[in-house]
Amino acid sequence: MGRSTRRGPASRLDDRATSTEGATTRFEPEHPGESRDHALLSSLRDIVLVRNADGILTYCSPSVSDALGYQPVELEGTRERDLIHAGDVDARDDLVSASPPGGPPLPPIEVRMRDREGDWHWFENIEINCLDDPDVNGIVTTARDVTTRKAESAALLERSLRDPLTGIPNRLALMERLDVALSRAERSQDVVAVLFCDLDDFKIVNDGYGHEFADRVLVEIARRLERLQRKSDTVARIGGDEFVVVCDGLHDVEEATAIASRIHATIEQPIVVDGRQCLITSSIGIATVDGTSVEHADSATLLRNADAAMYRAKRRGRARWHRFDDVLVEEASRRFELEADLTPALERGEFVLQYEPIHELARRTVVGVEAFLGWEHPSRGFLRAGQFLETAEQTGLIVPIGAWAIRAACIQARRWQDAGWPGWMSVNLSARELAEPGLAEVVAATLDETGVAPDRLWLELTESVLMRASCSATSELTTIQELGVHIGVDAFGTGHTPLPRLQQLPTDFLKLDGALVANMTSDGEIHAPGCDMVAALVQVGTTLGLSVIAVGIQTEVETALLIECGCQYGQGELRARPGPASRPEPVANPAIVDLRDRRRT
User: Fold this and answer.
1) In angstroms, rounded to a whole number, what is the distance separating the alpha carbons of residues 307 and 521?
2) What is the DSSP string of 131-192?
3) DSSP state of 79
4) What's the pLDDT tens digit per position in 248-304?
5) Distance CA 416, CA 581 (A)
């Protein structure tokens, strides 16, 4: 508590009221009952004060000595309001004035009272207006010291607004401060900027160095961001590897982009923990609002816009920043509409699966199919997965939709299995599905329900998703593989997967990205470097004992080149486009109807 230079009641005994009405009346017990009451009051830890209509203290319980350091005689006859903080007196008086004499006790009110040394303490006071009671003739205050409780509550509130790992503000504190920044901008007409910063591929740090190392990296990044911030800025951690910086009082948008550049530069500096060096990059989304349009903005929307801009930076190659612009406004609008439509789409049965045959290239027979998710949107028509999956992932709806897709594909696979076709069914998994605990249980339950043979189900994830998979996610895939299900890497060859890492993953097959297949020819001629690349990747798969499937085959020349490279399986529009379920016949070109062609007619 701070020391006060203001004189306390004890130093102002000469200010006591001298009128007969305000004179001090000492307690002189005349009856045994009164002695008992006095003894009880003496044993109380709470303070009991009585003041008359003029605000003069006429009684102070002995407990005032322990609570405030005064002897009762020092206070009796002084003005009660001199004990109370000036900022609390009016609220207390307004409460009392609203209560007529003889009424019930008033609701508790917290006020600050000063002790003999000039320090302030918090008390919870209950006031009773007994001015019309001739035995009391005053307002009775029962005061309980709640200083410790207030301090503990303040500390608890402070902890609730802080990220426990880094000690910087959390999401709740961020939103409160962003609200304040927007209010200030409305008055000052300055610019408010939200910079949403996501660390690139941070799961690799977690898996490669361990969680303790990763936590220390996050703490170091928080310290670096704090050193960059201005006095009026807020740096917060709102997720595992997500940080947000709120800047207000900016003169223009260019200041925000300059801050984003500085954040990039400071994060990219090497981080050394226990002698081990770690290099981190970040993708940053920037959303701004100025004083002229702030009345139409709100904190949640501004944060969501910055998040959308960050994802655009990710899609453009990571390690960069991007500003929320008109294109993203349109994208956001479409995304919000899709979000609203996605929620009931599963219940209404609007999702469908289409199937693309997978061939054994040399024999030209259908050995499997890949299931592709589609959405029969009630107003937009047929939507391919790429038109809505990102929104489904961001909202988490991909988890129930993905579970439906696995089940629907298994039901169809069982039908083909019962019809005597021995091929497999391949289904894609998203990063969100893999991150969700319980994926293995979903797969196991689906296999039990549908009765499809486990080795008929092939699950595939993109190379980038698998490389960023956490230890728990990899363990989940291993459990699924132990059921007899095949696990594969889709879009293989687009990343930079180290061979040792590939060996550690629970994989059974590789799918070569379509761009690699297309690069085997150029202007109708054989492109040797492209063929060499495919041959090398096929050799990697073969060496590891994995099946290799080429995706996106468009021409017979590509088919011949793939066979020459040793690739065993392939799929693409040369044979058949994705279409509805019909039995995949073991012929060169299965008769599978293309829904898209049918819709065009």
Assistant:
1) 40
2) TT-TTT-EEEEEEEE-HHHHHHHHHHHHHHTB-TTT-SB-HHHHHHHHHHHHHHHHHH--EE
3) B
4) 989 888 999 999 999 999 999 999 988 888 889 999 999 999 877 777 788 998 998
5) 10
Can you tell me which residue has the tokens 């350091």? 69
> For residue 333, what are its two tokens?
């609008």
- Ramachandran category for residue 487: left, alpha or beta (phi over 0 → left; psi -120 to 50 → alpha): beta
Let me know if 529 is exposed, middle or buried by CB neighbors in 10 A (0-12, 13-18, 19+): exposed
Interatomic CA distance for residues 212 and 198, integer angstroms: 19
Which of these, 71, 78, 61, 72, lies nearest to 23 by C-alpha position? 78
Could you tell me which of 6, 117, 7 has the C-alpha nearest to residue 67? 117
- Do residues 116 and 69 touch, judged by C-beta distance below 8 A? yes
Q: Which residue has the tokens 């990102």?
A: 390
Identify the three-state secondary structure at position 440: helix
SS3 content of the chain, % helix, strand, coil (to 5): 45, 25, 30
- Its pTM stands at 0.56
CA–CA–CA angle 533, 473, 311 (5° rounding): 70
- Residue 401 identity: I
Mind giving me the DSSP string for 238-268? Answer: -SSSEEEEEEEEESSHHHHHHHHHHHHHHHT
Q: Which domains does the chain carry?
A: 9-152 (3.30.450.20), 162-336 (3.30.70.270), 350-588 (3.20.20.450)
